[in-house]
Design goal:
about 55 residues, two-stranded parallel ribbon, 2 helices, about 25% strand
Length: about 55
């Protein structure tokens, strides 16, 4: 069974990497993480793009 996690972010550069890591290191094998950026201006989008292949 696939689990999808959907979250919205805005200017969370300092915490988004930890949140991504937490969601993606769960014991369930099939996790889809969908992140919606609300126009961040602090580098959040760049952090998300850097983790897109995970």
């Amino acid at each position: 069974m696939k689990i999808s996690v959907i979250t919205a972010v805005f200017n969370n550069r300092d915490t988004i990497a930890q949140a991504l890591n937490s969601a993606l290191t769960q014991s369930h094998a099939d996790i889809e993480l969908i992140v919606i950026d609300g126009g961040s201006t602090d580098g959040t989008l760049e952090v998300l793009q850097g983790n897109a292949d995970r």
